[in-house]
Amino acid sequence: MSLDTPAAAEAAFYAAFEQGDLERMMEVWAPRADITCVHPLAGPLVGPSAIRASWVEIFSNEVPRRFEVEPIWASATEETAIRTLYETITLPLSHQRFPALIATNVYHRLAGQWRMVLHHASVIGPSELPPEIVSPTPSTRH
Q1: Is 52 a domain residue?
Q2: Biggest alpha carbon distance in the chain?
Protein backbone atom coordinates (compact mmCIF):
# COMPACT_ATOMS: atom_id res chain seq x y z
CA MET A 1 0.00 0.00 0.00
CA SER A 2 1.39 3.34 -1.02
CA LEU A 3 1.17 6.22 1.43
CA ASP A 4 3.61 8.47 -0.41
CA THR A 5 1.15 11.37 -0.84
CA PRO A 6 -1.80 12.64 1.21
CA ALA A 7 -4.12 11.62 -1.65
CA ALA A 8 -2.68 8.09 -1.65
CA ALA A 9 -3.16 7.83 2.12
CA GLU A 10 -6.74 9.01 1.74
CA ALA A 11 -7.42 6.51 -1.04
CA ALA A 12 -5.95 3.73 1.15
CA PHE A 13 -8.19 4.80 4.06
CA TYR A 14 -11.39 4.63 1.98
CA ALA A 15 -10.32 1.38 0.25
CA ALA A 16 -9.74 -0.27 3.63
CA PHE A 17 -13.10 1.08 4.84
CA GLU A 18 -14.93 -0.26 1.76
CA GLN A 19 -13.25 -3.66 2.06
CA GLY A 20 -13.67 -3.93 5.83
CA ASP A 21 -9.94 -4.62 6.10
CA LEU A 22 -8.86 -3.91 9.67
CA GLU A 23 -5.14 -4.41 9.13
CA ARG A 24 -5.02 -2.14 6.07
CA MET A 25 -7.11 0.42 7.95
CA MET A 26 -4.70 0.50 10.87
CA GLU A 27 -1.70 0.75 8.52
CA VAL A 28 -3.07 4.12 7.36
CA TRP A 29 -3.12 5.45 10.94
CA ALA A 30 0.06 6.91 12.45
CA PRO A 31 1.65 4.77 15.17
CA ARG A 32 1.13 7.48 17.79
CA ALA A 33 -0.73 7.63 21.09
CA ASP A 34 -2.52 10.89 20.21
CA ILE A 35 -4.30 9.80 17.00
CA THR A 36 -8.00 10.72 17.13
CA CYS A 37 -11.12 9.47 15.38
CA VAL A 38 -14.62 10.94 15.62
CA HIS A 39 -17.33 8.85 13.98
CA PRO A 40 -20.65 10.55 13.14
CA LEU A 41 -22.74 11.36 16.23
CA ALA A 42 -20.05 9.95 18.54
CA GLY A 43 -17.41 11.33 20.84
CA PRO A 44 -13.68 11.32 20.17
CA LEU A 45 -11.68 8.11 20.31
CA VAL A 46 -8.03 8.69 21.18
CA GLY A 47 -5.21 6.24 20.67
CA PRO A 48 -4.67 3.14 18.55
CA SER A 49 -6.51 0.73 20.86
CA ALA A 50 -9.73 2.75 20.97
CA ILE A 51 -9.63 3.45 17.24
CA ARG A 52 -8.92 -0.20 16.39
CA ALA A 53 -11.83 -1.33 18.59
CA SER A 54 -14.19 1.05 16.76
CA TRP A 55 -13.18 -0.36 13.37
CA VAL A 56 -13.56 -3.92 14.67
CA GLU A 57 -17.14 -3.04 15.60
CA ILE A 58 -17.87 -1.28 12.29
CA PHE A 59 -16.35 -4.11 10.24
CA SER A 60 -18.24 -6.80 12.21
CA ASN A 61 -21.21 -5.90 10.01
CA GLU A 62 -19.94 -7.52 6.83
CA VAL A 63 -22.16 -5.55 4.49
CA PRO A 64 -20.49 -4.42 1.26
CA ARG A 65 -20.19 -0.65 1.16
CA ARG A 66 -19.00 1.84 -1.39
CA PHE A 67 -17.80 5.38 -0.88
CA GLU A 68 -18.13 8.41 -3.06
CA VAL A 69 -15.81 11.17 -1.90
CA GLU A 70 -15.99 14.72 -3.12
CA PRO A 71 -13.11 16.98 -2.12
CA ILE A 72 -14.09 20.35 -0.66
CA TRP A 73 -10.80 21.82 0.51
CA ALA A 74 -7.19 20.75 1.00
CA SER A 75 -4.07 22.30 2.42
CA ALA A 76 -0.61 20.88 2.96
CA THR A 77 2.81 21.74 4.27
CA GLU A 78 5.86 19.52 4.06
CA GLU A 79 4.76 17.65 7.19
CA THR A 80 0.96 18.06 7.55
CA ALA A 81 -1.98 17.74 5.18
CA ILE A 82 -5.60 18.62 5.94
CA ARG A 83 -8.33 17.42 3.60
CA THR A 84 -12.05 18.17 3.94
CA LEU A 85 -14.56 16.29 1.84
CA TYR A 86 -18.07 15.00 1.49
CA GLU A 87 -18.34 11.24 1.87
CA THR A 88 -21.40 9.33 0.74
CA ILE A 89 -21.85 5.67 1.64
CA THR A 90 -23.85 3.30 -0.54
CA LEU A 91 -24.81 -0.27 0.35
CA PRO A 92 -24.86 -1.95 -3.08
CA LEU A 93 -26.80 -5.07 -2.05
CA SER A 94 -29.77 -3.08 -0.74
CA HIS A 95 -29.33 -0.12 -3.11
CA GLN A 96 -29.37 2.11 -0.04
CA ARG A 97 -27.57 5.45 -0.28
CA PHE A 98 -27.05 7.47 2.87
CA PRO A 99 -27.01 11.27 3.03
CA ALA A 100 -23.55 12.75 2.63
CA LEU A 101 -21.37 13.29 5.67
CA ILE A 102 -18.67 15.91 5.95
CA ALA A 103 -15.25 14.63 6.94
CA THR A 104 -11.93 16.17 7.82
CA ASN A 105 -8.84 13.99 7.53
CA VAL A 106 -5.46 15.12 8.82
CA TYR A 107 -2.23 13.40 7.84
CA HIS A 108 1.34 13.80 9.09
CA ARG A 109 4.37 12.71 7.15
CA LEU A 110 6.31 10.19 9.21
CA ALA A 111 9.44 8.51 7.80
CA GLY A 112 8.41 9.54 4.29
CA GLN A 113 4.88 8.12 4.56
CA TRP A 114 1.66 10.10 5.03
CA ARG A 115 -0.23 8.67 7.99
CA MET A 116 -3.62 9.64 9.37
CA VAL A 117 -3.69 11.39 12.75
CA LEU A 118 -7.33 12.56 12.68
CA HIS A 119 -10.52 11.44 10.99
CA HIS A 120 -13.61 13.43 11.97
CA ALA A 121 -16.87 12.66 10.16
CA SER A 122 -20.17 14.27 11.02
CA VAL A 123 -23.65 14.78 9.71
CA ILE A 124 -24.31 17.88 7.71
CA GLY A 125 -26.37 20.60 9.35
CA PRO A 126 -29.84 21.69 8.28
CA SER A 127 -28.51 24.56 6.15
CA GLU A 128 -26.98 21.97 3.80
CA LEU A 129 -30.14 19.84 3.55
CA PRO A 130 -32.87 20.17 0.92
CA PRO A 131 -35.61 22.57 2.14
CA GLU A 132 -38.29 19.88 2.22
CA ILE A 133 -36.58 18.04 5.09
CA VAL A 134 -35.38 20.98 7.19
CA SER A 135 -37.10 21.30 10.57
CA PRO A 136 -39.34 24.39 10.84
CA THR A 137 -37.78 25.10 14.26
CA PRO A 138 -34.19 26.29 13.96
CA SER A 139 -31.64 24.71 16.25
CA THR A 140 -28.04 25.49 16.98
CA ARG A 141 -25.56 23.07 18.46
CA HIS A 142 -22.18 24.02 19.84
Answers
A1: yes
A2: 51
